[in-house]
Amino acid sequence: WFQRRKRKDKDKPLWFIFQKNRHATYDECSKATHMIMKQAGIKDNPPVTSIRKSSMTKAIDQGANKQQINRFSRHKQGSIIVQTNYDMNLNDTIRQRLAKL
């Protein structure tokens, strides 16, 4: 489906509302993601931020380096943000190790 996008639309973000000719807001993206997850049969419909948190944690577990995580998550200060927002249940020793990614 991504390949079938028209040439004029390829430079626009994926979450673009063509009828209103603007980028989708955070809430609109979240609602669209939840609808897709529901149609895919994913139960519990977790918040989008949980999905992002889980994917970052999995990337760390699989040995992703700091640059890879930054690119994936689009965070500018990857290790600090990971430490502050995504490693809530880990102890200080693990946080220090993750900060050195």
Question: What features would you highlight for this structure?
Answer:
52% helix, 4% strand, 5 helices, Tyr recombinase domain-containing protein, 2 domains, two-stranded antiparallel sheet, extended, 101 residues, mainly alpha
Roughly how many Å apart are the termini?
A: 35 Å
Helix content: 40-55%
Our count of helices gives 5
Beta strand %:
under 5%
In terms of structural class, how would the helical and strand content be classed?
mainly alpha
Organism: Streblomastix strix
Keywords: DNA recombination
GO molecular function: DNA binding
InterPro entries: DNA_brk_join_enz, Integrase-like_cat_sf
Sum this structure up briefly.
This protein has 101 residues and is mainly alpha-helical.
Account of the protein in words:
GO terms for molecular function: DNA binding. InterPro entries: DNA_brk_join_enz (IPR011010), Integrase-like_cat_sf (IPR013762). Keywords: DNA recombination. This is Tyr recombinase domain-containing protein. One of its GO terms (biological process) is DNA integration. Helices cover 52% and strands 4% of the residues. It contains five helices and two strands. The chain has a two-stranded antiparallel sheet. The chain folds into two domains: 12-39; 48-99. By secondary structure, it is mainly α. It is extended. The protein starts with 15 loop residues before the first strand and ends with a helix.
